[in-house]
Amino acid sequence: MVNEIIHWIQALPWKTILKIGSILYALLAIGVSLMILMNARSGSKALAYLALIALVPILGIIFYLSFGINYRKNKIYTRKILQDDRLATLIQNALDQRFKEVSLEHKADLDYFYPLAKMIQEDARNIFADDNQVDLLINGEQKFQRLLEDLRNAKEHIHIQYYIYENDVIGNEIADILIEKHQAGVEVKFIYDDFGASSIRKTLVRRLNAAGVPNYPFYKIKLIALANRLNYRNHRKIVIVDNKIGYVGGINVADKYINNGNSNKYWRDTHLRIEGLSVLSLQMVFLGDWQFCADENIEHITKYFPRNALPVTESDGKVVQIIASGPDSNYPSILFALNRAILLSKKSVWLTTPYFIPEETLTDALIMASLSGIKIRLLVPMDSDSAFVNTCATSHYEEMLEAGIEIYRYTKGFIHAKTMVCDDKIAFVGTANLDQRSFDLNFEVNAVVYNKELAQQLSNAFLEDLKYAEKLEYSDWMQRPRWRKLVERVLYLFSPLM
């Protein structure tokens, strides 16, 4: 039997089969290459994918089809939470009018960053609020103390969404409050990312389900569509309590974010607690995600956006804008906002990020600003949590250092904050890293605060972090081994795919 099979295989017209196979593969490669050229948002990304297909036949095509197709044009889901077009138009007009009035009233706060605020308003059309109390929270020990208190005091609803949520002490403490509040009649909605929070599927989620707490995973991972579903993750960290209090920033829910001596690694991160109308902008982002996850239209949506919240009121509070972006966005909104802020700055731009694999326009903006005499400082971890990602990041250091950008590497522990402060006038705090994934593939949310006091606080935190960082000198960096330079140059070519 075996001999017959071998004989049958040998008798096959292999030359013809290989010729047909080569023709079919060539047609497939041409077709995929055309897809890349038509769909890639940047030339560098298109070239990187084409190089991958040329260097790694078949596997390169599989990689692109699995991870490279951008659904921005097709839109994975819609954030149109207002089904009544007439009502939506009225609200948008009210928001535009509010922007005009608030920007005029707070002309001194906006100053020369007005074009940034205008651009964000035209893109997002969220509430441009000037009555906010904003507290800068450093690390988990500050954040969770305030968060637990606010959750316990909730009277109407708790909306909570996280990328990473662990089945540990703090994770269960929050879950206990959610269950308690749900049983007391408070509305609770809980979203967790099915990849980032995978450890709670069979543990904490089952507890919530048993107690009847509404919860959904974002973009549930299924084996058939594993690759693309892994590719598009919800990286947002949002909490809204009673339409009055909101949390946004880089800190997920896990014990490791609390530096209480129980962990071997110090975790440095930044978050914001907001009270005021900007909480309604966070609410809009959350409810859009909820409609997608729950696959339902939210009834009585207007109860989350009370009419008396729209008119302008006199206030000396902080001006805040919320920016959300993802594969469903018309534009890479957070990337655009960062670039615009950098190019509007006149004195200094200080950035903190755990992952630095910048998009080419961000690279250009930073270099142009530095060459214009603006002091650019970049704070990154000494070592990333991935050697591959770390090498991709360092492949960008040489051109940054050569342009006069100062790079500092944090040594006290792992720095996970995602912040930017410009000219001690405006502050960015949110969930987006300075990498391609955050700008193109992940669902992210950032807050922009136009306030000198908050910006100065963030600057002070940045300077405090520099005490535990080593400055990377250009002359020293150029002495690294040649083999490392070669590896970096190869990975640099493929960094648009990271």
Span between termini: 50 Å
Query: What would you call the shape?
Result: globular
Helix fraction bin:
40-55%
Number of discrete domains: 3
Number of strands: 19
Radius of gyration over all CA atoms, rounded: 25 Å
Low-confidence stretches: 310-315
If strands are numbered along the chain, what order do they take across the biggest sheet? 4-3-2-5-6-8-1-9-18-16-15-10-12-13-19
Per CATH, the architecture of the largest domain is 2-Layer Sandwich
Strand proportion, as a percent range, falls in 15-25%
CATH superfamily of the largest domain: Endonuclease Chain A
Q: Helical element count?
A: 20
Briefly, what CATH class of the largest domain? Alpha Beta
For the sheet with most strands, the description reads:
15 strands, mixed
Which fold name corresponds to the CATH topology of the largest domain?
A: Endonuclease, Chain A
**Structural category:** alpha/beta
The residue-averaged pLDDT reads 84
